[in-house]
Every structure is written in C-alpha cells, then in structure tokens.
Amino acid sequence: MSTIPALARKSRLARYFQNIKDSYTISRRSYPWVGWALLGAPLLIIGLAVLLATATGQALWYWLVMAVLLSLVADMVILSLTVRRASLTQIEGHPGAAKAALDQIGRGWYVESEPAAINLKTQDVVWRVVGRPGIVLVVEGPTGRTQSLVADERKALKRFLSTVPVHVIHVGAETGQTRLADLSSTMRKLPTKPTRLTDAEISQVTKRLTSLPGRGPGIPKGIDPTKVRPDRRAMRGR
C-alpha cells in the first residue's frame, strides 16, 4: 500500500513534464524563437548573479541559487504567455474559435454557452458576453458579410434591454478586425463610462438574455463551437 502514493506522485510528475513538453511544442510552431528565449533568460539571470556576487562581495553560491530559482520562474512565464497566444493563433479562422478565447477571459464576464446567432451556410457566428462595459457581441466572419447578423442582434437587444450599452468586436485577420489572441485584452479595454454595470446588474442582464427566445437555427451538425480547443496530438505531429 505504501507504493500507491509514490506511484501517484510519479504519475503527477510525469504529467507535469508532459504538459511542459506539449506547451513547448505548441509554442515553437508559432514562435520558433521560444527555445532561444527559454535558454537565454537563465543565462542572462545567471550572468547578472555572478556580476552582483562580484560587486557586493557576497557568496557566489547564494546568488547562483537565487538565479536558478528566478530562471525557472522566468521560463515558466515565457512558456505560459507564448503557449496561450500560440494555441489561439493556431485555431484562428475555425468556426467557434472565439469561444475558446472567451472561455479564458477570466472573472467578471458571463459568456453564453450557445451562440446568439449563427449562419448555417457561411458558419458566421455571433457570441454574447456580459461584463462591466455592458453587452459585447463577438462576431466571427467577414465584417461585411456579418452586418445583417449584427443588426438583427442589436435590434433584439434594444427591444428588451434598451438601457444596456452594446459593443461589437469583429474577430479575424482582416483589416479592422481583432486578432483572436488579442480578444481578451480588447474586451478589458472597452469603455465603462458613462455606464458601468454592477455585479447585480450583470446578473440581471444575464437572466434577461437567457429568457430571450432563440432566433438562430442552432449549432450546425458536426460543429461544436463551444468545444473548440487546440488539437495537441496534431500539433505534436502525431
């Protein structure tokens, strides 16, 4: 029985290193320089530690220990930042990819699990999100082609929630659109003046939205925009 905890720890450690390996593989596909960054950051930190130890006259081993710890933290930060952007970049353009980015937006936002509107033929999608700035319509598809979807959604919201501000963000690679990796930061920069919703108001608006009758035809068969995730096995070339 004593071997069970040891095996569990070994399994967790193996998964941890596998996650690091997968993250590096995903990051390298979009950012070929990430390997040099992961190598260069520790070398720079250790070099600074040696200089500080020489300048202050303190024990070199102390500064080297601190440098190793800081190097590990620096590499984890670099890897976490690059893997998130890389994974979003690699699914950009796929139907429902915006939902993957919205699911990572953090606290303070309510993201509906189903699209507010969807065009079955073109697979253009409109997602509704509620936060401090009001209601945000996140639109996937060419700006010109999705104008009717956005207009219909604006009319519905004006009819039922006329006092709540509505913002529109077009996600894509076209000029004037927001890249998928920048969606979260763009939403956080939306204006909250003169209207800033409180937690209670966000809850009320969310309940009103869920009670609205569905206008869209639903999610196309074979496509689940709510579950778009990077295919890590494919990214590893398997």
Helix content: 40-55%
- Ends apart, CA distance between termini: 37 Å
Number of domains: 2
Q: How much is the radius of gyration in Å? A: 23 Å
Shape: elongated
Q: What is the number of helical segments per DSSP (H or I, 4+ residues)?
A: 8
Give a count of the beta strands, DSSP E runs of length 2 or more. 5
Write down the secondary-structure element order. Answer: HHHHEEEEHEHHH
Biggest β-sheet strands, sense, barrel: 5 strands, mixed
Q: What is the SS-derived class? A: alpha+beta
Topology, pairings included?
Blueprint: H1 3-30, H2 34-56, H3 60-91, H4 97-102, E1 110-111, E2 117-118, E3 125-131, E4 134-140, H5 147-160, E5 166-171, H6 183-188, H7 199-211, H8 232-235
Parallel strand pairs: 4-5
Antiparallel strand pairs: 1-3, 2-3, 3-4
Helix pairs in contact: 1-3, 2-3
Give the key terms.
single chain, 238 residues, alpha+beta, 2 domains, five-stranded mixed sheet, disordered C terminus, transmembrane helix, membrane, DUF4191 domain-containing protein, transmembrane, DUF4191
Description:
- The protein has 238 residues and is an alpha+beta fold.
- It folds into two domains: 3-91, no CATH class; 97-224, no CATH class.
- Helix content is 53%, strand content 10%.
- It is built from eight helices and five strands, in the order H-H-H-H-E-E-E-E-H-E-H-H-H.
- It is elongated.
- 24% of the residues are buried.
- Residues 216-238 have low confidence and may be disordered.
- The chain crosses the membrane at residues 33-54, 60-81.
- InterPro entries: DUF4191.
- Residues 211-238 are annotated as: Disordered.
- Residues 224-238 have a biased composition (Basic and acidic residues).
